[in-house]
Amino acid sequence: MSNDNLIKVTVWNEYGDAQKAPAVTRVYPQGLHETIAGFLNKDPEIEAQTAVLEDREQGLSEAVLDNTDVLIWWGHVYHDKVEDKTAQQVIDRVHRGMGIIFLHSAHKSKPFMSLLGASGRLCWREANEKTRVWTAAPGHPIAAGIPENFVIDHEEMYGEPFGIPQPQCTVFISWFQGGNVFRSGVTFQKEYGRAFYFQPGHETNPTYHHEIVQRVIVNAVKWAKPVIKVGPLNCPNVQSLEKLE
Ligand code: ZN
User: Fold this and answer.
1) How far is ligand 1, taken at its centre, from the CA of residue 97, in Å?
2) CA 47 – ligand 1 centroid, Å
């Protein structure tokens, strides 16, 4: 397989000071973006690179986006530091065919809320509680090889109601030990591009080391890869195809 056939993934992480605290670095010494890129790069169909907020043009220059089939987004504390221009460039690329995967606290990121036209609201609790993820759409490509349910021993709770439009598919629903439930894996079609939101992944929990979580993200990359990528979207004035009387 030539390099051109690989799915080019950019794993973007805000990676600010909050993620350089010992509570996080003991789980993700190089940052969770490197962990995610690391397991993605074990797949022969995927070529993953990383980008962070501090990089030039916030890590999301036109050159980076030109070379991205699927963008993975992890952000939490620094959502407001992402410039509107950067968020708009990302949304424009999704409209033109780029896939996007929003992880965990990306539900309040600018690209998530703008792309979905929604608040992204939810309730939460940081209690290191057990969560059981149920596969609600076993026939969906993102669920390929994923068991009927699986447990993550310690996660942050995210609970309904979740402020999103009706998903194209609810692939996963999670139950939390404290009683809440959440639509934890949902898909959307946004013009030419595909979007997937996946809840697990609090930064102080080793969630991205979990084998089944990794499988979900690999599957999601393959599902979200562009079917077609188009140039800038405009509204052309066109001639008629048949003769108009
Ligand atoms: Zn969290």
Assistant:
1) 29
2) 27
Question: pLDDT tens digits, residue range 23-72?
Answer: 999 999 999 999 999 999 999 999 999 999 999 999 999 999 999 999 99
Centre of ligand 1 from the C-alpha of residue 121, in Å = 14
pLDDT band at 1 (very low <50, low <70, confident <90, very high): very low
Query: How many whole angstroms from 201 Cα to the centroid of ligand 1?
Result: 7
Q: What is the pLDDT of residue 4?
A: 78
Q: Model pTM greater than 0.70? A: yes
Q: What is the three-class DSSP state of 59? A: helix
Q: What distance in Å separates the CA atoms of residue 139 and residue 111, rounded to the nearest whole number?
A: 28
Cα 40 from Cα 24, distance rounded (Å): 21
Q: Are strands 123-135 and 149-159 parallel, antiparallel or unpaired?
A: antiparallel
**Beta strands, E only, 17-165:** 46-52, 70-74, 99-103, 123-135, 149-159
β-bridge pairing 70-74 and 7-13: parallel
C-alpha 67 to ligand 1 mean position (Å)? 29
Compute CA distances 198 → 23, 37, 63, 164, 187, whole Å.
22, 16, 27, 13, 9
Report whether 156 contacts 123 (CB < 8 A). Answer: no
If you measure from the C-alpha of residue 154 to the centroid of ligand 1, how many angstroms do you get, rounded to a whole number?
11
What are residue 157's phi and psi, to 5 degrees? -80, 130
What is the CATH number assigned to the segment(s) 7-118+185-224? Answer: 3.40.50.880
Q: Helix (H, G, I), strand (E, B), or coil: what is residue 138?
A: coil
Q: Rounded mean pLDDT of 177-183?
A: 98
